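Holo model, 475. Inputs:
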Amino acid sequence: MFGLMDGFLKNDPISLQKDILYHVEYTVARSRFSFDDFEAYQALAHSVRDRLIERSHDTQLFFKRKDPKRVYFLSLEFLMGRSLSNSVINLGIRDQYAEALSQLGFEFEVLAEQEGDAALGNGGLARLSACQMDSMATLDYPAWGYGLRYQYGLFRQVILDGIQHEQPDFWLNFGNPWETERVHVTYPVKFYGTVEEEILNGEKCNVWNPGELVEAVAYDNPIPGYGTRNTITLRLWAGKPSDQRDMEAFNTGDYINALVSRQKAENISSVLYPDDRSYQGKELRLKQQYFFVSASIQDIIRRFKDAHSNFDEFPDKVALQLNDTHPSLAIVEVMRVLVDEEHLDWHKAWDIVCKLFSFTIHAVIAEGLEKIPVDLLGSLLPRHLQIIYDINFNFVEELKKRIGLDYDRLSRMSIVEEAAVKTIRMANLSVVCAHTVNGVSTVHSELLKTKLFKDFYELWPEKFQCMTNGVTQRRWIVVSNPSLCALLSKWLGTEAWIRNVDLLTGLREYADDADLQQEWMMVKKVNKMRLAEYIEAMSGVKVSLDAMFDVQTKRIHEYKRQLLNILGIIHRYDCIKNMDKSQQSKVVPRVCIIGGKAAPGYEVAKKIIKLCHAVAEKINNDSDVGDLLKLVFIPDYNVSLAEVVIPGADLSQHLSTAGHEASGTGSMKFLMNGCLLLATEDGSTVEIVEEIGAENLFLFGAKIHEVPELREKGPAHDVPLQCARVLRLIRDGHFGFQDYFQSLCDSVEGEDFYLLSSDFGSYLEAQAAADKAFADPKKWTKMSILSTAGSGRFSSDRTIRDYAEKSWGIEPCRFPSEFDG
Ligand code: 475
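Output:
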């Protein structure tokens, strides 16, 4: 069958050139004798896309023939970033393209810079989905990603006078060469209306008569694996007006209004919600959730029915992964389809549904768990509310048999919360139905068992698992740090680590080797130069390459404690100001880099950004300080900027108050790039310590178990002198905007919920230890090498293998290797 299928398209530089020029002429519609960088990028991307399409066709045909159990990864957010470099690297044709382009007078890197980010997500959860897609493709798993094709991705952050402003991300304005619109893959999605009981073939059944119909149309995005021909698909849904409904309106003669109301359908997938904690009670958000769930489930069932007729086999062929609670209406939707449309008996349907789902939770605190007001759900999805009540009824009855009439516990575990506003607890629904409930780091998984879902853990201990997060070394080393990539392959004597990252431990034996150390420092320098150039171009601030590049980039949150970082910087500034010249000569120079977006309505986070700018303004213009200290805020931090920032960092900070970061994945990317961590013992840092040893990073702060007691002590506890002094400088207006910043200072000197004041001393000690280590380049470089060497466990390849084996029950399905290429 595959005799003809070893690829129509050739990948030698001449063939690539021809293809690029073909696309210049006929796709971009510019003359092949005259086109600019952006047009060249577009043509290049289209030629890569052709190769991706060919491979994804082959992959799908192969899956179809083998009919393995497939996993469907449901996520409302995917933070993909750019695709060009990642694709050509995974296809194994980066060098051929570079050569083809250079003969045409273009440079690959320059064209790659033309691409905008696909930012269909907020933060950690969304980037994790993207890394996991790369691993699923690379490890040959028969997987699909499903999500929403937002017209506007995450807002662009623009800073004016130190204040964050949000601007729309028009990412589709210049077209998206990677996606393919599947005009024939569309499904109707119903909303509102009523539920009628009807008799069908002598049996009672529920019929949902919707009040609104919207069509979901599929856009396919190919995800190529590395070192394999397998290319899987991320299918994103967009809203489109439904012809069915509109015909009625047109027939009644209301031409204009019928056309205007068609526009509404597109609103559903129009914009990504920019909050990375949770949304409670937003109708559009709920619509988005159901829209994407309903279309995905219809698609999955259609594919199943193409090859099977008996739903008993459904769980043998389908695994459904819920990325947090956002897609958990899928549980109810599958129930609805099986009972109302396929006419399965309720208990049989429930039995099937319970074998399908695994659920991963990314939240740490109960308030982060999603709840949907019953009124809202009942109006938008009347039949689903009934089904949830029925699921809950059966669950509570069963529970009473198991635990008796412990009403407190019953009400805590109930899917329906009977509070002032009656709500549906989506996390409880997911835990009740899913066969596995996963945490994202060891400490987080323990927290789920002992706090968040304690009652459920006692009932079903076997459901709870830990799937420590990971990131893909393809993007975070191979794409973003080519110099390190070359060095690693040279010293390990193989490129195999790109698929088998555990091989990085092989570096350990050379950690003291003078040659390796020399090359290692050179690589870091190259990356620091790239970052320094970016900083100067963006902010006009010139930074010294001899300084320690100290980075904290992530969403701005009180619990992530960017404020602690800034207070530390002020302290450093104050110390330098009070030194004489000889003392100053011993100071380790620093470039402090902070970046990240604040949710648009999160006032405290925005104040922290403003404070950062105010402090930077003062420090960077103080000639007493010079190169000893600089502070830069990198605006609009996103995936493609992370690819420049992370390789160039010497030190990175992960300062969450212990117990607040479920995992943290940024730290893993820094670790892979040989950046030393300064961190609290929270989330995945605890596991990083296990891998690289506490002596190779800078730990500080209260431990998880100490936090409650420290909070107990509350506002009365003493603010350390150094911290008080720093706060005094802010309060006294040293950095301007005196009134505006008072509340930030109050939060530290008052309740201090996030323990900035009580961790301050220990934070400064860790910073001093980092300075000391940096002053000894051999020691620092060794620590850096050992960081990379110990990062293997934090590859998403490991995470995905764990999921495949322990949660999804799927196996690799690799396109035959004789056709690899
Ligand atoms: C955790 N996002 C990190 C990361 O597991 C962890 C929530 C609601 C709506 C939209 N987005 C969200 C998150 O909850 C999120 O990004 N959580 C993060 O998930 C991956 O490493 O500790 O905070």
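The radius of gyration is 27 Å. Residues 122-125, 128, 276-278, 362-363, 440, 469, 661-665, 683 surround 475 (CB under 6 Å).
Archived with the compound record.
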